[in-house]
TrEMBL record, chain A:
Cofactor list: [4Fe-4S] cluster; siroheme
Ranges of residues in domain Nitrite/sulphite reductase 4Fe-4S: 119-273, 409-547
Keyword Nucleus: no
SUPFAM superfamilies assigned: Nitrite and sulphite reductase 4Fe-4S domain-like, Nitrite/Sulfite reductase N-terminal domain-like
Species name: Pontibacterium sinense
GO CC, any one term: sulfite reductase complex (NADPH)
Record's protein name: Nitrite/sulfite reductase
Signal sequence segment: none
One GO term (biological process): sulfate assimilation
Residues of the Nitrite/Sulfite reductase ferredoxin-like domain: 53-110, 346-398
GO MF annotation, one: heme binding
Automatic annotation (TrEMBL), chain B:
Pfam families attached to this UniProt entry: DUF934 (PF06073)
Stated name of the protein: DUF934 domain-containing protein
Length: 552, 158
């Protein structure tokens, strides 16, 4: 993975010192509250229900073992011993003290980590496929471009005060595991007719209160033009995006108001002015950064292992975990392992400091010392030898990190909701527990197959409920928590927005309602049809009828 | 109001921002763009220098066509969170403007360095936001990734 050079390190160190000074001036009364708010947000610091919340960047989801240990140390020393992985592959700490934040950041800087632009109206962490670099269907590893964008966007002097936050995601191939179509800019690595590799560019996607799927602004962009084109898009947005109403300030609103064709004309006209400037990426720079993401030195005889098959045959629990929680690696003899942060009755995405230390150790021992976070709030050890899987599984199981539910209903993506988030309309954690409790039977979940359940505690959609196959949105009705259910969303290459099935259900009825939805699916399903395909085929009516049928 | 030009405090500034009522005063004046456009004729043969102030809501196409008709262009920041002025300054530079670009309005410590990098050479800081510490703003960072108006070369071309 990328290693800081002297410039990278200096920049992060100086940012820590700057933030320390900003905090000092705020506490001394020299910096007005609203101004400090903008500044602290730009450094990942929210003020929440109980305490400040610090969001630390995990650039495109990559962490070293050493970085994970440092996160564990932060959780232990300054927080209540745990952290929470988010849908943007970052990690949040819910309990730090404002005065401690500069020290936390200083500690993180020692391991090349920071909280720069993890919040605020600026360019956020670029996210990508959690299997980047190791999956057979990718055209090219997207991570070098994520890093190039990280550097270009960090402390960009022109784009620190955009109308609203700005999120970029890159997918490395035709299978979209980065939810790129619901980002402000989505980049798809593609090959053109001439066989050159470049980017398809989408713009204007986003969720929140107005969910929109991104639109294509350019079918093919040369690699060298990546930064100049991004700069053109964001300059147009900075100048023309709405600033009178924060709910209408995202780029999706601008693109819809102007129409994609007019927006494209503006961007192309701006780009014409800068496409031959110093922003052009040099081959040397691209290969320098690519050099950090070279394939590991895999063992040539890893594929000769026979122990895995033997273990799979003799241990059904292991076999289930293998099927659900591991993924084919492009190098035979290796698998990518998904470390489940969706344990039974544990807040989704939460991880304790002991677990962090353990995952760090396991990555050192089994996976070249690297860990990835996913936009579904799990972790990945991407390069594990077949022969090590059984042992790894045993250790993960012991630590409650091997629930064999990846891709199933209980692999839920859930925001912190009303228990932590000051913006929430409803709690989410209790409902997640209710769903966990109701759908404990793994065999039933396996029969149901791939289902993506996303639950947000309010319309801000931090857990992408619109693009869950099943989406749950917490709403407030006269001070009570109610839940609106949507079906048919997807964040993949077939992205779609879910549709609401009817009026919200009470908090104690959510799991029962899901049971009815799933009963319709089981009844109507053709062979091994996926849930989402079934919903698309039969429409919402059968589900509505069942869920809202008058009680007998 | 404290004024920094090329990062140094300046005592005697000849410019005054005018409005509808004070438009006719003598000396060097900065006229908000809309007011300037309404009174272009009467302003053309006055004594003293004439500058305009633009803001994000203005259509600045005509200014960009011939920016050097003005010795100074002020860019107004209506609020901390309004970052349009950064892009406006860069557009002025790109249009070949060689006069002074002055940041006015909500201008304070934590944006000064970004402003300088985007091409502002004059920074007008409200008195209640000014202190000696403000001068540290330019030395907080010794490295940067992107090219901008101060140096167009990104880190990979340095
Ligand atoms: C607890 C403190 C949090 C606060 C105050 C917060 C606030 C917000 C707000 C206001 C928005 C809507 C922005 C807009 O539409 O312009 C938003 C969107 C989002 N948040 Fe959070 N959030 C929090 C936690 C999280 C967590 C825990 C996650 C991940 C699980 C997350 C991931 C996201 C994502 C992915 C979006 C983007 C949806 C979109 O594209 O519009 N946030 N957040
Ligand atoms: S969706 Fe709403 S409740 Fe959940 S974290 Fe985001 S802002 Fe908070």
């Amino acid at each position: 993975m990328y290693q800081y050079n002297q410039v990278d390190q200096q920049l992060v160190n100086e940012r820590v010192a700057q933030f320390r000074d900003q905090t000092r001036r705020f506490l001394a009364g020299d910096l007005p509250e609203d101004e400090f708010l903008a500044l602290r947000l730009m450094n990942g610091l929210y003020v929440q229900r109980h305490a400040p919340m610090l969001r630390v960047a995990v650039p495109y989801g990559m962490m070293s073992a050493q970085q994970m240990r440092s996160l564990a140390n932060v959780a232990r020393t300054w927080d209540k011993g745990y952290g929470h992985f988010t849908t943007r592959t970052n990690i949040q700490f819910n309990w730090p003290k404002l005065e401690d934040v500069p020290d936390i950041l200083e500690e993180l800087a020692k391991v090349q980590m920071h909280a720069i632009q993890t919040s605020g109206n600026c360019i956020r962490n670029t996210t990508t496929d959690q299997f980047a670099g190791i999956i057979a269907d990718e055209i090219e590893d997207p991570r070098p471009y994520c890093e190039i964008i990280r550097q270009w966007s960090s402390l960009h002097p022109e784009f620190a005060f955009l109308p609203r936050k700005f999120k970029i995601a890159i997918s490395g191939g035709p299978t979209d595991r980065a939810a790129s179509q619901v980002h402000d800019i989505g980049l798809h690595i593609v090959k053109n007719d001439a066989g050159e590799v470049g980017f398809e560019v989408l713009v204007g996607g986003g969720l929140g209160r107005t969910p929109v799927i991104g639109k294509q602004i350019r079918p093919f962009l040369q690699k060298k033009d990546l930064l100049s084109y991004l700069e053109a898009i964001i300059r147009v947005y900075n100048l023309k995006g709405r600033r009178d109403n924060k709910y209408k300030a995202r780029i999706k609103i601008l693109v819809n108001a102007l129409g994609i064709d007019t927006f494209r004309e503006l961007v192309e006209a701006e780009w014409e002015q800068i496409k031959d400037s110093d922003l052009v990426l040099t081959d040397a720079e691209i290969s320098r950064v690519q050099g950090f993401f070279k394939p590991f030195e895999y063992e040539a005889d890893a594929a000769n292992d026979t122990s895995l098959d033997a273990k799979l045959a003799e241990d059904a629990s292991f076999a289930a975990w293998f099927r659900q929680n591991t993924v084919e690696h492009k190098v035979s003899g290796y698998r990518a392992v998904i470390v489940s942060l969706k344990a039974h009755l544990v807040p989704k995405g939460d991880i304790s400091h002991q677990q962090m230390d353990l995952v760090a150790d396991l990555s050192d021992k089994y996976s070249f010392g690297e860990i990835r976070s996913t936009h579904n709030q799990n972790l990945v050890l991407a390069d594990v030898r077949n022969a090590d899987l059984y042992e790894l599984w045993e250790i993960l199981s012991e630590a409650n990190l091997a629930r064999a539910n990846v891709g199933t209903l209980t692999d839920m993506t859930v925001c912190p909701g009303g228990d932590f988030c000051a913006l929430a309309n409803a709690k989410t954690l209790g409902v997640a527990d209710q769903i966990d409790a109701k759908f404990e039977d793994l065999d039933y979940l396996y029969d149901l197959g791939d289902i993506k359940l996303n639950m947000s505690g309010c319309i801000n959609a931090c857990s992408h409920h619109h693009v869950g196959h099943i989406g749950i949105l917490g709403v407030d009705k006269k001070g009570e928590d109610w839940y609106q259910i949507t079906l048919g969303g997807s964040d993949g290459e077939d992205a779609s927005l879910g549709k609401v099935i009817g009026k919200a259900v009470a908090s104690d009825e959510v799991a029962d309602t899901l049971e009815k939805v799933l009963a319709v699916f089981v009844e109507q399903r053709i062979e091994d049809e996926r849930f989402i395909d079934c919903v698309r085929r039969i429409g919402l009516s059968p589900f509505k009828e069942k869920v809202y049928a008058p009680a007998h | 109001m404290p004024l920094l030009i090329n990062r140094e405090p300046v005592e005697n500034d000849s410019w005054t921002l005018v409005d509808e009522d004070t438009l006719q005063q003598s000396g060097d004046i900065i006229v908000p763009l809309a007011l300037y456009q309404e009174n272009q004729d009467s302003l053309s043969n006055r004594e003293g220098h004439l500058a305009v102030q633009v803001s994000g809501d203005d259509n600045i196409d005509t200014v960009l066509e011939n920016p050097n008709q003005f010795p100074l262009i002020a860019v107004f920041f209506p609020a901390v969170r309004d970052g349009r002025g950064f892009s406006i300054a860069r557009l002025l530079k790109r249009a070949g403007f060689t006069g002074q670009i002055r940041a006015t309005g909500d201008v304070s410590h934590d944006r000064l360095d970004f402003m300088t990098r985007c091409g502002f050479d004059a920074l007008e800081i409200p008195a209640d936001r000014y202190s000696e510490e403000v001068h540290n703003a330019f030395s907080e960072f010794s490295v940067r990734y992107q090219g901008a108006e101060d140096d167009s070369r990104p880190v990979y071309r340095q």
